[in-house]
Amino acid sequence: MSMVSYASGARYLSLIGGTCLSFYDWYCDLPPASPMTWGEQTDVPESADWYNSSYIIAWGSNVPQTRTPDAHFFTEVRYISRASISPTMCAAIPTCRCW
């Protein structure tokens, strides 16, 4: 988020009598939903945890292109009999078992 976007939103909020409690307030449902879903605030799980999964779906994610340092974890999951599936046609398909 740009500083201009944040500043304009904070200004509008102050004009209507609201208060901005934190920077995360501009992410809508992230502050309440993330801790309820994952147990921690905006925590991204470690990619090595993919080894602990028995079923991985790469939904809307192109792991080899967007997470280059972690792509080898996604590829190596195939060799330990885990199911990795990509429902969309993207560059992640060679690293998945099913499409």
UniProtKB/TrEMBL annotation:
Keyword annotations of the record: Oxidoreductase
UniProt key word Oxidoreductase: yes
All residue ranges annotated as the Molybdopterin oxidoreductase domain in the record: 1-78
A Pfam short name: Molybdopterin
A single Gene Ontology CC term: membrane
InterPro entries: Mopterin_OxRdtase (IPR006656), Prok_molybdopt-oxidoreductase (IPR050123)
SUPFAM superfamilies: Formate dehydrogenase/DMSO reductase, domains 1-3 (SSF53706)
Signal peptide range in chain numbering: none
The EC number(s) this enzyme carries: 1.7.99.4
Alphabetized GO MF terms: oxidoreductase activity
Name under which the protein is recorded: Respiratory nitrate reductase subunit alpha
Source species of the chain: Klebsiella pneumoniae subsp. ozaenae
Phylogenetic placement of the source organism: Bacteria, Pseudomonadati, Pseudomonadota, Gammaproteobacteria, Enterobacterales
